[in-house]
Each structure stands twice: as C-alpha cells, then as structure tokens.
Design brief:
17 strands, Heat Shock Protein 90, 17 helices, alpha/beta, single chain, 3 domains, rod-shaped, Rossmann fold, five-stranded antiparallel sheet, Beta-Lactamase
Length: 559
C-alpha cells in the first residue's frame, strides 16, 4: 500500500514516486489532509505545464509535477514535501511577501521577474513569469496556493541582446548621420576656405605687384634721388607703410597656406620678439601678454612664416578661451629631449621648446586626443574652420619636431612646440649702408606681363649696371632666346602670366639652355605652392633694390 494513496493518471511519473518516497509521506505528515488538498495535488501531477503548490499557511509544504522538475536543478533532492522556505531559501526574501499575500487570499502575478538564484552552486541572474492563486477549503479559509510558472531567462537574455544590438545599430545610424552632417559642414568649410584662399591669392598677387612698384620706387628715390631731409622723411614714411602692408599680405598668405615657403636659419627668440606686437594686437587689451626669451640665440632651420602662423593660431585659440580676460605667456628654452607625446617614444636631441600658455577655460580630457584633427573644432558654426591646430601639428611634424598639449578644465592650457636646433648660423643680411651689387654690363632678359611692374623692373635692373631686354610673356621670351641665348647672363621672370607660366618657362629654359640661370619672382603663385621643389631661386614680391641686386649677382657669378 502507498504511504500516501492518491489517484493520478500516470503513477509511473518521477514526481509521483518522489511524493511517495518523501519524508512528508513516510513520516505520516500526510495524515488527515483534506480532500481539497488531494484534489489540487492530483490536478498538479496530471498537468503537462510546470505547476507547484504549497499547502498549510504555517508549514507551506512544497509539491510539484514532472514538468516542473527541470526548473529545480540541484534543488530537486529532498524538495518534495519540504517546506517552501527551505527549498527556495536563496530567493525567499524576494518572494515571501507575495506568497504571504496569496495565503491571505490576494492573488499575485509577475512577468519576467529578476531573481538572483543559486543554480548548480553558482549565483546567477534568472527571470521568471508566474502567478500565485489561493486554494480554499470548504470553510472558505485559504489553506494552500497554486503556482503556474515558467522560466524566461534565455528569452529575456536574447531579448536584451537583441535590444542592445538594435540600440547599437540605432546608435551607429545616429552616429553615421552625425558624421554625414559633420562631413557636409567640413566640406562647406573646406570649400569656403578654398574660395577664400583663391580670392586671397589673387588679390595678393595684384596687391604685391602694386607694393613692388611702391617699395621699389621708394628704394630708387632713397638711393639715387636727391632732396632735402623733409622729402627723405616722407619717402621713408611711404616705404615704412608699404613694408607693413607687405608683411600683412605675407601673414595672410601664410595663414591660408598659399605661399611658396622655404626654410631658413633664424633665431626663434628674435622671430617671436618681432611678432610680439602683432600678438598683442590679436589678443586685445583685456588679455596680458608676457614673453620670456633666453639671452643666447636659439637657431633653428625652419620656415619662418609657418612658425609665425603656428604661433598666431595658438594665440587665437588662447584668446578665444579667455573671453573674460586673462594672461598669455610665451616661453622659449633649449631642451635635450622631446618627452613621450601621445603614443610616440621620447626623442633625444637638441630642441627649442616654445611654450604658449593661457589662463583660459581649458580643454576637456575627452577632446584632447582630437584637437589636432583637421576640421575638428569646439567653436560654433562659422566661428572656426578647425584647421588652426592641424596646421600647427603638420608644421612641427614636417620640421621633424613635435607638439604637446597639457590642459586642465577651468585652469588653462599649455601648448609646447619642440623644434630641432641647428648648428648653422643665420644668413648674412645686407645692412642699410652696404653698397648695391653691380651688374657690370651683363644683359638680363626680363619676362613680365604687367606693364607698370615691367617698367619698374627694367629701371631697377638697369640702375644696378645691367643691360635689359623685355619680353612681355613666356612666348616672346622663348623667341628672344631662340635668336641668341648667349646674349643673356640670366633670365628674371614673373611666375603668374597668361599662357605659359613663369615656372613652365623656367623648366623649358633649363631643358633647352641648361647653362642659363633663371630667377623667378612672385607675390603669390598656386603653382609654386604645389611644386615647392622646383629648384629655381625665388625672389618674393615686394623685393628691395638690395635683394634684387644680391639675387642677380649670385646667379650671374655662378655662370
């Protein structure tokens, strides 16, 4: 006879055998159970769905069917007929209130309830959907609860994974859209910069031609014309104003990176000192500027205009970071190494460290790795192209140096340019009272399409003791050379001309007449900017009479 006789459809099922072998059945704890319990337990054991019931408001004995067995895991041993709190001790604090409600006659249900559960000796995150229903006896009292349950852990994890994947895809799509918007803005800024550069270059070419006539005429008046002291003072004033205009044009061209630039040996301290007046003007009266320079010269072999542009770009950034006022400090010192910057290793060697520090708002740490990216800017639309610091980065890298940045939000930023030193000494410059180089009757072929500039150039070269032949364009120049190239000691040609450019003319002369030197002159040329390694001497407009004489003397003596 069974310890607990009960009529079920499949007495061979494991749950029924566990019931008969349980301590609850063997220990006569099943005696005097009401009919309602037997009915409910038979229904649970016959059900194909995972079900369990708890009987006794105090004892809460736990009974389950075969469909529920997989959900128990290692809890199966001794679970049948045991107290519910004992079997589910690991989650009891989370579910006991709901079970008490059900025994009080209040049904409860949960969907995808998260429970941290002991699964095979390991605490794991699980998810469950279940409901507690009260079981009443004839008196109306609640003596048990029925639980319909299913585990949703795998489904929830898959759903969450899918949600994360969808979110990631959505985020990628959002990021792609932002990148598209950013790319469009970058393209617009790039096109704007390109148009501005072309306009600047074209204006600078014509402006430098005018300045050439002005400054050249001033030179001629100072060297060859008489006049009293008052007239000389006025002439010098004109020359000084034209010199400032020429310097402004050079800065504009260097800023838009549309000038043919070349390295030279110079003292960094002297160069920064010469730029200090412009720096003070850029930052305005509400920002103090301090410049600390070494006593000894710090010689570098760099493009001076590019260094000036880099400094101006950093100064402008410092100014914009100090809208309410502050201080900019520029320090120059010699160092024996470049520290580890970003991902690069330290570099041993002799460098000039040029530091530009400000007391501004600083740069957020998450932005530091992006500040040198082309077009990246934290300024508003139309307030910056994002090319300033990329120019700084490109300049120092091309100069075999590096740039470092240290910043703290709310305290300021320090940019440090590490520029390699050189053992060379600066080129000798003619002083005001040195004589002009004379041409000794050599003939120069001048190629210039601008009538006013051509007239000045011919007069200036003739005044230096040369004979002059004028060709209005490159075609006429080649015709003159074809007649008798040996007549000419050198060719002095403008670069920007209709038809064949001065640069193409120079290359043709080098090919056809390899012994004939060519000196190019230009105030601006896109061709020279794109072909920096053309190999021809270049005299930038506006040039002085001394510079013209020096260039021509050097090429003529080399023949």
């Amino acid at each position: 006879m069974l310890p607990f006789p009960l009529t079920v459809t499949a007495p061979e099922q494991l749950a029924f055998r566990l019931l008969q072998d349980s301590d609850w059945a063997q220990g006569n704890l099943a005696a005097d159970v009401p009919l309602e319990f037997k009915t409910a337990l038979s229904m649970v054991l016959d059900s194909p769905e995972p079900l369990w019931l708890a009987w006794g408001a105090e004892e809460k004995r736990f009974f389950f069917n075969d469909a529920y067995l997989p959900l128990l895991g290692e809890k199966l041993h001794g679970a049948m007929g045991a107290k519910l709190q004992t079997v589910w001790h690991d989650v009891w604090p989370e579910v006991c209130a709901a079970i008490d409600d059900a025994f009080a006659g209040r049904p409860r249900s949960f969907k995808n309830l998260r429970l941290l559960m002991d699964r095979d000796g390991t605490m794991k995150e699980t998810f469950w959907t279940f409901s507690y229903s009260p079981i009443r006896v004839a008196s109306g009292e609640v003596e048990g609860i029925l639980c319909v349950v299913s585990e949703q852990t795998e489904r929830v994890i898959e759903r969450d994974l899918h949600s994360r994947q969808v979110a990631a895809i959505t985020q990628e799509a959002r990021q792609a859209h932002l990148e598209l918007v950013r790319a469009r803005e970058q393209l617009r800024q790039s096109q704007k910069l390109e148009a501005m550069g072309q306009l600047t270059g074209g204006v600078a070419h014509d402006f430098n031609n005018l300045l050439q006539i002005i400054t050249g005429s001033v030179d001629m008046l100072l060297h060859y014309a008489g006049g009293d002291e008052r007239q000389q003072r006025h002439v010098k004033a004109i020359g000084s104003a034209a010199g400032r205009a020429a310097k402004l044009t050079a800065h504009l061209l260097a800023f838009s990176r549309r000038q043919s630039l070349s390295p030279e040996v110079f003292d960094v301290g002297e160069s920064i000192q010469a730029l200090s007046e412009l720096i003070t003007t850029i930052v305005g009266g509400h920002i103090a500027v301090t410049v600390n320079l070494p006593y000894e010269p710090v010689h570098v072999l760099l493009d001076r205009n590019q260094l000036d542009t880099a400094l101006i770009n950093m100064i402008v950034n410092a100014r914009d970071a100090m809208a309410g006022g502050g201080r900019v400090t520029i320090d120059v010192e010699r160092v024996s190494a470049v520290p580890a910057v970003r991902w690069s290793l330290p570099i041993q060697g002799r460098f000039a460290a040029v530091r530009v520090s400000d007391t501004g708002s600083g740069i957020a740490p998450e932005l530091l790795s992006r500040i040198f990216e082309p077009f990246f800017t934290t300024k508003g639309v139309g307030e910056g192209t994002g090319l300033g610091l990329s120019q700084v980065f490109g300049f120092v890298k091309q100069s075999e140096g590096d740039v470092d940045v240290q910043s703290q939000v709310g305290q300021g930023t320090t940019f440090t340019l590490y520029l390699p030193l050189t053992e060379q000494t600066p080129s000798h410059h003619l002083s005001q009272d040195e004589g002009l180089e004379q041409g000794e009757g050599h003939r120069i072929l001048v190629v210039e399409d601008n009538a006013d500039v051509a007239e000045f150039a011919m007069g200036a070269i003739a005044s230096l003791g040369y004979q002059v032949t004028l060709a209005r364009n490159a075609e006429f120049a080649l015709q003159e050379l074809a007649q008798d190239a040996s007549r000419f000691r050198a060719v002095f040609s403008d670069v920007v001309m209709p038809g064949i450019s001065g640069l193409d003319l120079a290359k043709a002369i080098r090919s056809q007449y390899p012994g004939l030197p060519v000196v190019l002159t230009s105030g601006y040329s896109e061709l020279l900017a794109k072909d920096a390694g053309h190999g021809f001497p270049l005299l930038l407009k506006p040039y002085s009479l001394r510079q013209l004489g020096k260039f021509l003397a050097e090429v003529c003596c080399a023949v």
